[in-house]
Amino acid sequence: MTVHVVDAVDLTTAQLHDLLKLRVDVFVVEQNCPYPELDGRDLEPGTTHLWIEVDHEPAATLRLLTDPGCRRIGRVATAAEHRGAGYAATLVQRAIGLTSDPIELDAQSYLRQWYERFGFVVTGDEFIEDGIAHVPMRREAAF
């Protein structure tokens, strides 16, 4: 297992392709949720991609965006065959360690308690995005 932390400007074409493929496999195909996965944010300045590689393939990934006044975790995905190994938790902890800024995310509602274990709290009402229930969450700045 190898953990990668790469700023958007340093991603290779092959790395970006493999991360996008994993995300499409999980969010679009597996969750049967057609939505605009390519939202233009993957290569923004200040974006960092984290992923765990197993046998030369991404097993889990997330991206850490820079938003006004905070960082934002999104696109947390683990390949089906690697679930239960703690890879997503490793990536979330690593992302938290990269910044002292507040971090926000929109969690799928069934994962609310999972994110709470990292210090995230619900900050608003549940909402539906692309047919899936989500809750906004925030982790305050670490000092």
Describe this structure in words.
The protein has helices spanning 13-30, 87-97, 112-116, and strands at residues 2-7, 48-54, 57-67, 70-78, 103-108, 121-122, 127-129, 132-139. With 143 residues, it is α+β, with helices and mostly antiparallel strands. It has a domain at 2-101: 3-Layer(aba) Sandwich (Aminopeptidase). The longest helix is centred in the first third of the chain and has 18 residues, at 13-30. The N and C termini lie far apart (30 Å).
Secondary structure category? alpha+beta
Question: Beta-strand level of the residues, as a percent range?
Answer: 35-45%
Topology as H/E string? EHEEEHEHEEE
**What general outline do the C-alpha atoms trace?**
globular
According to CATH, what is the class of the domain at 2-101?
Alpha Beta
Number of strands: 8
As a percent range, the share of helical residues equals 10-25%
Radius of gyration: 14 Å
Q: Would you tell me the overall average pLDDT?
A: 94
CATH homologous superfamily assignment of the domain at 2-101: Gcn5-related N-acetyltransferase (GNAT)
| Separate helix tally | 3
- Characterize the biggest β-sheet: 8 strands, mixed
User: What is the CATH-assigned architecture of the domain at 2-101?
Assistant: 3-Layer(aba) Sandwich
